[in-house]
Amino acid sequence: MKRYERFADEIAELIRDGVLAPGERVPSVRQASRQYGISPSTVFQAYYLLEDRGLIVAKARSGYYVREQARRVLHEPHMTPRRQETADVAVSELAFSVLDSLQDPETVPFGSAFPSPELFPLARLSRSMAKGLRGMAGSDVLKDMTAGDADLRRQIVLRYTLKGMPLPSEELVITSGAMEALNLGLQSVTSPGDLVAIESPAFYASLQILERLKLRAVEVPVHPRTGIDLDVLADSLARLPIKACWFMSHLQNPLGASLDDDSKRELYALIKRHRVPLIEDDAYAELHFGTTPPKPVKQFDDEGLVIHCGSFSKCLAPGYRVGWVAGGRFAEPISRLKLMTTISPSVPAQAAIADYLQHGGYDRHLRQLRHALETQQRQMLDAASRYFPDETRATHPAGGYFLWFEFPERVDSLRLFRQARKRGISVAPGPIFSATRGFRHCLRLSYGHPWNPRSEAAMATLGELIDTF
Ligand SMILES: Cc1ncc(COP(=O)(O)O)c(C=O)c1O
């Protein structure tokens, strides 16, 4: 990362944390240059970057100011109390109709789970695919099939190590996306009928996997900013025979909430005390807006209880279907389950990603992606503050590409979903994120696509539709 980018990130963090408030002057070029020991041209470059990202504006002969972000700041959503102790899960039909609503390329994809392909280095990746294949000995195609591409495994282990989390490579299994990693992880530690602690609201595919494996959900409320309620979890673990936990400690889907390090330590202590494995879904690990990459609960795992699942789908190569699981003490059963089901993700796709990680400029791409997403988040929040009713509440996550909106109780997001669909807009209604069909007045919207006049018009239409409830 260049010096000016680092400095820009530091200022962006001060803005995000509210240390520099909207309308406030950012340090003058001279001041910043002296204070941070950098040249005035580095400060200028950083301020141009922050201007591009829409975080500051220049005022003639006066300097740079934090942009007045939205006409009004939308308040944080409430934390929803638990509805019932345990539940059978049945959300598939609803989730499939949301996925179906995204088939038409003309649809405004606010309901999508993937960012825009425009944000990914697909041309560079296809060169890596060709190169990876050219360099591959015929025997490698079969040799690497079960364990996974050797170079890719090395690159992933290296990234764990650079984060300060050395990982024995025997723990690592390459999978078809995080989805397979999560499926295998959960299946290897549960049997039909078991209780699994999940978040409320939760990523809908986790509910579908519970449904498929005939597991019962124990929903634990998630605070929209600070993450899972550890007191409720402690109580549930003490009273119920929970066989596994499935949580996202960072940029939780759909809320964007993240646990801080103390809470992650406490969560680990809890599962260790009860000897309950944690399936940690870290699909959004690379999409943080701040400068310091957060570490997962896995960092504390001294007993191999955490099954840590990652993916390249959201940050580099959607469609390549390459992810991984660091399975701790469950690595062996996970590996065997994989051999009994898919055997391996495509070997060429793995080789392409391995080559890209070594030579493609992955970290530069990630910085650009994070900046694009941060800008798009501001644009969507801005539009929501203009078009959505006064009582609307919204999350302001420090990464990822989802916003969670909470409307007054009278707003029925399932009806809204159907009405929006007729107007060419896809949205993700609250109940698909709940085993008990809660969150009926909530909506998840994705800002993963570059903002354009159609996005603006779609927000205005949604605002009109919401006003009719
Ligand atoms: C929270 C979460 N976990 C896992 C996945 C699945 O990731 P992959 O595409 O790598 O299978 C998704 C994709 O939507 C997700 O949002």
UniProtKB/TrEMBL annotation:
InterPro entries (UniProt xref): Aminotransferase_I/II_large (IPR004839), HTH_trans_reg/aminotransferase (IPR051446), PyrdxlP-dep_Trfase (IPR015424), PyrdxlP-dep_Trfase_major (IPR015421), PyrdxlP-dep_Trfase_small (IPR015422), Tscrpt_reg_HTH_GntR (IPR000524), WH-like_DNA-bd_sf (IPR036388), WH_DNA-bd_sf (IPR036390)
Record keyword Transferase present: yes
Q: Which UniProt keywords apply?
A: Aminotransferase, DNA-binding, Pyridoxal phosphate, Transcription, Transcription regulation, Transferase
**CDD domains tied to this protein:** AAT_like, WHTH_GntR
Q: Which PROSITE patterns match?
A: HTH_GNTR (PS50949)
What the entry lists under Pfam families is as follows:
Aminotran_1_2, GntR
Q: Which part of the chain is the HTH gntR-type domain?
A: 1-69
Gene Ontology molecular function: DNA binding; DNA-binding transcription factor activity; pyridoxal phosphate binding; transaminase activity
Q: Which SUPFAM superfamilies match?
A: PLP-dependent transferases, Winged helix' DNA-binding domain
Q: Does the keyword Transcription apply?
A: yes
Which family, according to UniProt?
Answer: In the C-terminal section; belongs to the class-I pyridoxal-phosphate-dependent aminotransferase family.
Protein's recorded name: DNA-binding transcriptional MocR family regulator
Taxonomic lineage per UniProt? Bacteria, Pseudomonadati, Pseudomonadota, Gammaproteobacteria, Oceanospirillales
